Structures are given as C-alpha cells and as structure tokens.
Amino acid sequence: MRAFEGQFSDNKPIQRNKDEKRRLLRELEETLASLKAHASPSLRESLKTRIQTLKTELAGR
What we know:
Blueprint (H helix, E strand, L loop, with lengths): L17 H16 L7 H20 L1
Helix pairs in contact: 1-2
C-alpha cells in the first residue's frame, strides 16, 4: 500500500510553532529532571542536546 502526500510516513520533519516548541522544551526539561540515577548516559545526552537545540531555535526567533 502506498503512502499518500502529507502522511506521517513521508519522512519529513514535524513543523512546530513557537508555543509548541516551548511546551516541548518544558516537557523535555521535566523528563530530564525526573530521570533515575541509573538512566543511560546516552539518553541523558540526547535529551540535553534536544533541549539545547530547542533553546537556540526559540532564541533565534
């Protein structure tokens, strides 16, 4: 079965507005703060990277 135009499986980045980015940033920061001590370092690093990316995107606008 083929995908139609605009379907989520088009492998395109999700476009978020400023409010959605702020909400996502808050959720990611809460997730990072609530991680247990035994959480993998790679997970922590990926969360920190995503948080930093969102902060720079929000500061640039």
